[in-house]
Amino acid sequence: MTYNLEEAPASGLDYYSFAGWSFFSQSSSASYVAGQKIQLDDDETFYAVWKLDGAIVENTSWNNIASSSKTYYEFTLLKTESLSVTASADGDLYFYMMTEEDGVKWWNGNAFSYKTAVSGEKVTSVSGSVNLGAGKYRYGIQNKNVLSSKNYKLTIKPVQ
Predict the structure, then answer these.
(1) Is residue 99 within a helix (H) or strand (E), and if so which, with residue range?
(2) CATH 2.60.120.680 in the chain, residues?
C-alpha cells in the first residue's frame, strides 16, 4: 500500500517545530518528510520528530543597557540541548545564566565555567557552548557602571 505522510498536528511546544517522521521513538532526526509517499508492507508506527527552531535569542544589531540596570532574555528548553552563546559589548558588562531551580549561575569569560556567586566577571565578549537540561532559563546582562550606558549584541541558538 502507498501512503502519503501527513503533517503533524499543531504542538504548542515553545521553540519547537515539526521536522518530519521517523520509525524510532527517540530519533533526533527525521527520516521522512510530510507529503512524502512511502510503501507500507505491514502495520507501521511513525513518530513525530520535533526540532528546536532557529535562534532562541538573536540580536543582530546593537542594544542599549542603561547604567546600573539589568536586562533578561527568557527561554524554555523541553529537552537537553547544546547551545551556542555569543555576546559582545562596547564596554565591560556582566553576562550570566539563571535557572528556576538553581538561582544564578554565572558564565565566567570565555571559559563558560559555572560559578555559584552573586557577581560574574566583567567582560566585553563571551562565546562558547553549554549543555542545558530541560527547564526554564533567564540569560541576564548587567551594567553595574553607574555613570554610563553600554551597547551589546547577544545570540543564543542551538549548536548545529
Answers:
(1) strand 81-99
(2) 57-158
Q: Which residues of 88-108 are buried (b: 16+ CB within 10 A; e: fewer)?
A: bbeeebbbbbbeeeeebbbbb
Q: What would the grid cell of residue 56 be? A: 532562541
Q: What angle do CA 22, 8, 47 make, to 5 degrees?
A: 25
**Which range, 21-25, 53-57, 137-141, has the best average confidence (pLDDT)?**
21-25
Residues 136 and 45: beta-carbon distance below 8 Å: no
**Residue found by looking up cell 552563546 in the block:** 85
Q: CA 123 to CA 87: how far, in whole Å? A: 10
Indicate the CATH number for domain 57-158: 2.60.120.680
Q: Contact at 8 Å (CB) between 33 and 20?
A: yes
| pTM reported for the whole predicted model | 0.61
Q: Scanning the structure block, which residue is given the C-alpha cell 557577581?
A: 119
Dihedral, 111, 116, 121, 123 alpha carbons, nearest 10: 50
pLDDT digits (tens, 9 = 90+) for 56-79: 777 778 899 999 998 888 777 777
